[in-house]
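Hey, can you fold this one?
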Amino acid sequence: MANIERFGSIFLLFLTIILSINSISCEKSLLTNQAALFVFGDSVFDVGNNNYINTFRAAQANVWPYGQTTFKFPTGRNSDGRLIPDFIAEYAWLPLIPPYLQPGNSISHFTYGVNFASAGAGALVETYKPQNVIPLGSQLNNFKNVEKMFKEKLGEAETKRIISRAVYLIQIGPNDYFYPFSVNISYFQSNSKDRFVDYVIGNTTTVIEEIYKSGGRKFGIMNMGRLDCVPGMLTLDPTKIGSCFEPITELIKLHNVRIPNVLIRDLQRRFPGFKYSLFDSYSAGTEAMENPTKYGFKEVKKACCGSGPFRGSSTCGYRAGTSREFELCENVNDYMFFDGSHTSEKANQQTAELMWDGPSDLVGPFTLKTLFQNL
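Sure. Predicted structure:
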């Protein structure tokens, strides 16, 4: 009996060792030699983080008809289907990058990358703070939590390899510039636009700097797109219904001048090895709006889903029969915008293709395709 018990103890010890080795091997086998993709931003990039926080209805897209095209159910993406990071991941031979807050995530998922973006988020903490979104600084903290997890599970050397080879995709600012108008339409009559833009650029620069200090070297950055001309903006000025909202236009132009001349120049000067791909979202959006048929669109002012003039009101997904009932177009592929603020999957794919390997007048000095290669 003693020999049997002794044999049983030895067997259990042996089995424990085998399972531990197998667990480690499995964990290592799930590592990828491909560069990971880490995503920061707002609703343009949020693939579902806001599903898991208590925020306001307009910052969540977890109801039908969101997701109707590709996923056939709402995933939390503010579109009828995939977003720009989904396509970038596909082009980089990566799986869909999961939202950070998604339950069930593990180290094996995160080695391919993580999406930290949150709809409604801004570079400034004050932007939609009462609505409990995840601002850019908090997204950075979540990235540092993932870095810590890597170090605990994979070790310092493997963590350094993943972080140094990864591409960091960042899109932030639209909510910062729109939020003051939602609180007080005359906000900038008594506040400096230049100083406000400097705060947004400064906070964005700080986050990139912190990622660099963690070992990140390759960054994909979008300038500010045509936020002023989305369907939801076309009725803000009652004297110019159907026109782009000019107070936002001025902020966008100030922002876009500062991206290369302040943010990029500062980072290049201070940080050796900093590499970037800057995408001119403003010019690309303007081109599509002015030449819609060239890009396969029949409608670039009116949204597919929503209500009111240009379907610009944020009612997409509200229940029928309520005071917030919405309209839905028949063919979303005809539309540049899916709802009053967000582009359709078709438009997202076109943008992603330009960011991935577009012409030098829209993306440079590197394309995202080049950044994903071993620079």
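The mean pLDDT is 89. Let me know if you want another pass with a different chain boundary.
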